[in-house]
Task: inverse folding
């Protein structure tokens, strides 16, 4: 089994576990990002308060709306990313060693090369897996409300007339989201928000650049010490969290724009909520919401993404170690 395939499978496994643990936070964060007209009382609600509100009004299941395509997307995304990341990194390492033989450099992959490798892997990942995330966004932002209020407001209720009971709305599953997207924009509808998402590859690029740099320095420090016990899973957890924190703070506005484009567009009524493209979304957000609009739900995203990234890195490294150890033991003669 190739090293790239090991990293790809380990990344997919780590991504799925991290996604399961942090998915309710992701659902709330997507709703925060796509909310156009937050009322003052809604703004006072924190992340936990909004989660409780969703559970009270729509049920526990809505916190996991879109979980199935999200897990599929996570497995595909992490697998594709780590697979191509390892392939590109192997080529970068081979190039660095070739340069060393020619008297250029020390044979290690530099920070800029790590950034380019991560960016290339990210672009391949985005182009192949964007449809998954458009479907997930639609399902996360779909509000499951009863039709009781609609029936009350649609006509005048006489004093002696019985108010109709709440009618449970039909389920909105993966197939419904796919049909809705295809009906709105055809096949190209599944690549909505791909431009800001491609720019967003700078997030994992920065994340992996910071992670690899910090990990390299830590390993170098451990190697120079008398007691070289390697890097522990908890240390990898902390390095992954720090790397993701730095990358998220810088690139968060692009994430909000992407979510706005992928959510269901308002085709009638207030045109401020209908975005024709990336530039149109950015200009309208600046005009009607100010720069605050680009940072809606950022605190929730930091908690969710940092925790997810830390868990992912920790589990991935352990899976890679286990796979390599298993393959090594099998290759040894009895």
Result:
């Amino acid at each position: 089994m190739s090293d790239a395939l090991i990293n790809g499978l380990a990344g997919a496994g780590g991504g799925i576990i991290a996604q399961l643990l942090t998915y309710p936070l992701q659902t709330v964060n997507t709703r925060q990002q796509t909310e156009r007209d937050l009322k003052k009382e809604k703004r006072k609600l924190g992340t936990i308060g909004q989660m409780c509100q969703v559970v009270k009004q729509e049920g526990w299941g809505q916190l996991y709306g879109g979980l199935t395509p999200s897990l599929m997307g996570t497995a595909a995304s992490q697998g594709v990313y780590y697979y191509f990341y390892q392939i590109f990194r192997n080529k970068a390492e081979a190039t660095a060693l070739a340069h060393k033989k020619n008297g250029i450099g020390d044979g290690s992959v530099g920070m800029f090369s790590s950034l380019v490798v991560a960016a290339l892997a990210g672009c391949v990942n985005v182009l192949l897996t964007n449809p998954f995330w458009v479907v997930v966004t639609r399902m996360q932002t779909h509000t499951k409300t009863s039709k009781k209020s609609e029936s009350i407001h649609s006509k005048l209720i006489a004093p002696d007339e019985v108010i109709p009971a709440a009618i449970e709305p039909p389920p909105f599953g993966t197939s419904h989201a796919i049909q809705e997207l295809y009906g709105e924009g055809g096949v190209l509808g599944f690549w909505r928000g791909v431009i800001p998402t491609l720019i967003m590859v700078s997030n994992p690029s920065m994340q992996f650049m910071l992670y690899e740099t910090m990990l390299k320095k830590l390993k170098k420090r451990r190697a120079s010490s008398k007691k070289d016990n390697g890097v522990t899973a908890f240390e990898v957890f902390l390095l992954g969290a720090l790397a993701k924190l730095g990358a998220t703070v810088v690139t968060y506005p692009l994430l909000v724009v992407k979510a706005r484009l992928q959510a269901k567009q308002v085709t009638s009524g207030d045109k401020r909520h209908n975005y024709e493209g990336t530039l149109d979304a950015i200009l309208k957000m600046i005009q009607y919401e100010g720069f605050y609009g680009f940072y809606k739900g950022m605190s929730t995203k930091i908690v969710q993404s940092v925790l997810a990234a830390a868990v992912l890195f920790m589990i991935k490294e352990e899976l890679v170690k286990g796979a390599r150890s298993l393959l090594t033991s099998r290759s040894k003669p009895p």
